[in-house]
Input
Amino acid sequence: MTDISNAIAASSMLLAVVAVLFGVWNGAIDAALALDVSGDPATQLPQRRQLRSAILTKASPLVIGAWLTAVVFLARSVEIGGRFLRCPPGQACRPDDVAAAFLLTEAFMLLIAAATSVQLIRLVARWLEARRRKTRS
Output
C-alpha cells in the first residue's frame, strides 16, 4: 500500500467512526435541543440536566473527535489541493483518483466537524438560557 492509500484508509475509518457516533447520538442531541425551557424555572431541573448531559456526553466528545480527525489530515489535504491548483490550465495533468478521494473524505470530515460544532453551540446556548431563567426566579 502506498502512503496516500494508508492515509485514505485511516481517514475513511475515522470518518466512519465519527459518522456512526453522529448518527447514534444525534437523536439525543436533537431531543435536548427540542426541550422547552420557557416554563417555570422551578420545574426545569430535568431539562437542564438533559441539556447538560447531551453537552458533556454526546456533543462535546463528538465535536472534539470530529475536529481532531479533520486536523490530523488537514496538512496533507492542503498539500494535495495545492498540487491540483498548480496544474497549469490547458496542460494535461495526471489525475490522481486516490488523492481526490482523500480530499473528498477530508471535506466530509470538515462538514461533520462544522455541523457538530453548531449543534454544541446551540446546546450550550439553550443550557445557558435555562440557567439564566433559574437565577432570575
About this structure: Residues 41 and 132 are 9 Å apart (CA to CA). The two ends are 64 Å apart (CA to CA).
